[in-house]
Amino acid sequence: MLVQLGVFSSRSEALRELIKAGMKEFRLVIDVIKAVENFLNLREKGDIPIRLDGALKQLLEERGRF
Amino acid sequence: MSYIDTSIIIAALDSTDPRMHQARRVLEEVGDKIISELVLVELTSVLSRRRELISDLAEKLGLSEDLLIMAVLLYIIKRFNLTYKAVRYQVATLPLGRVYMPLAVAMKLSAQLKLKTLDLFHAAYIKLLKDEGEPIHTLVAVDSGFEGVKRRLRQILGVTTFMV
Fold it and tell me: What percent of chain B has pLDDT over 70?
């Protein structure tokens, strides 16, 4: 999944990084992947669960303030 | 390959903006799409302030809010088929001291591009990613801040600007 998502370029790179990060981090990564899979399942049912209404105006205003 | 500015990703998820459908279509139709760490930071900043959305989803999925934000970022990357590329960690030595490379490049480009800070950072990331071999030829954005410097972006960075 992490390779499919483009986070790592290969399975061996993913494994190397996860081993380096340790078991605790590995469990967190699994939780995050499960959440992404849930989002993707919702999308298959036609529902895009992330709505950011009003966020573009907010982003562009903030950029203008710099 | 196209460099995707944060503004078009946000536009594609913002139903109150009239450009939502066009932004979504562009993201779905454009081929190779690359984003930088700056896009991830801007998205995180926007998401972290959507308290209701984040706390509802975090509760539903049994995740802490920081992990939920990470999951949303990954979902957005997957949803729009984006590729995140990190730039190599480098530091530039300027007359005033050591500066993280993307910031040093932004400082160098500022005199030529005269962009606001975050737009300037995106230009710096395009330059660094291109220098590292990514064949970026287009900048895709909604932010009109890039509109006025299209010609300079082409001359200096070798990218055309596609505005939604």
Answer: 100
Residue in chain B closest to A51 (alpha carbons) equals B13
β-pairing, B91-94 vs B97-100, is antiparallel
* Distance in angstroms (rounded) separating the CA atoms of residues A43 and A46: 5
**Is residue B57 less than 8 Å (CB to CB) from chain A?**
yes
Cβ atoms of residues A50 and B76 within 8 Å: yes
B75 and A39 within 8 Å at the Cβ level: the answer is yes
pLDDT in single tens digits along all 66 residues of chain A:
667 666 677 888 877 877 777 766 677 777 888 888 877 777 777 666 788 999 999 999 988 865
Pairwise CB contact (< 8 Å): B143 & A60: yes
Whether the complex's predicted ipTM surpasses the cut of 0.90: no
CB-based contact A40 B83, cutoff 8 Å? no
Considering only CA atoms, which of B72, B150, B29, B144 is closest in space to residue A61? Answer: B144
How many inter-chain contacts (A to B, CB under 8 Å) are there?
A: 100
Spatial neighbors of B87 by CB under 8 A, at least 6 apart, are B36, B37, B101, B102, B125, B128, B129, B132
B80 CA: distance to closest CA in chain A (Å): 11
What confidence tens digit (pLDDT) does each residue in B41-78 have? 999 999 999 988 888 888 888 888 888 898 899 889 98
Which tokens is A50 given? 């992330």
Q: What is the pTM of this model?
A: 0.88
Residues near B105 by beta carbon (within 8 Å), at least 6 away in sequence: B92, B124, B127, B128
